[in-house]
Amino acid sequence: MKHSRPVSRKGPLGITGHPILRCKKAAQIFRRGMRGLSSRSPKKRFRSVDALCESAVLLRNTPEALEKLSGSLLSEKNTDVRKRMLRAINYLAKTQEDCSYVVPALEEVILHGSSSERVEAARALRVVGDPGCIVCLNAAIEEEPFSRARQELAATVRYFRRLEF
Questions:
Q1: CA distance 72 to 32
Q2: Which of 31, 53, 80, 151 has the maximum number of C-beta atoms within 10 A of its C-beta?
Q3: Under 8 Å between Cβ of 163 and 131
Q4: What domains appear along the chain, each with residue ranges and CATH number?
Q5: Over the stretch 107-119, which tens digit does the pLDDT of each residue have?
Q6: How far, CA to CA in Å, does 158 sit from each of 44, 138, 145?
Q7: Using an 8 Å Cβ cutoff, are 133 and 110 in contact?
Q8: Which tens digit of pLDDT belongs to each residue from 55-81?
């Protein structure tokens, strides 16, 4: 018979203990995530995005994390890491009121990214909510070869048109 272990009360990052210690640990993870985004290893950058995202929510450092992610997004070459960054931006933007400083990076991805990156960027744009992006979305729809990505971009355009009226 297998011995069952008690379920620990860990958060998403595995942070347990007293709230003050938990904050200290989250701050440590946040700093490590910020540093890890400039690592040479794609695997480390991928994990750093997650750590940065989750610890930013705990520490309420969302604007700083969003700024760092949008800055790193443009220089990132690995598609998987870029998609993870876009998902993190989407997740963090839901907790913010004004995320207009993220829009230029998202527009850049929509214009020059891969199909899967465009889909993630379109979803993030819906959360950020900037109707001025309709022009770049329409340009991306014209040159997009895959129908699934075209549908997602078109859905974002329809969403913004609905907001205008």
A1: 15
A2: 53
A3: yes
A4: 19-164 (1.25.10.10)
A5: 999 999 999 999 9
A6: 37, 11, 20
A7: yes
A8: 888 888 889 999 999 999 989 999 999
Residue 109 CA to residue 114 CA, distance in Å, equals 8
Amino acid at 82: R
Assigned token pair, 115: 């199909």
Q: How far is CA 16 from CA 5, 11, 20, 32, 64, in A?
A: 16, 7, 10, 18, 24
Cβ–Cβ under 8 Å, residues 119 and 148: yes
* Token representation of residue 163: 């907001």
d(Cα 129, Cα 124) in Å, to the nearest integer? 8
Question: At 96, is the pLDDT very low, low, confident or very high (cuts 50, 70, 90)?
Answer: confident
Count Cα atoms within 13 angstroms, Cβ side, for 40.
0
| Tokens found for residue 13 | 């990052």
* Residue indicated by tokens 């990214």: 113
- Specify the pTM: 0.84
The full length of the chain comes to 165
The one-letter amino acid code at 138 reads: N
Q: Which residue has the tokens 């971009």?
A: 153
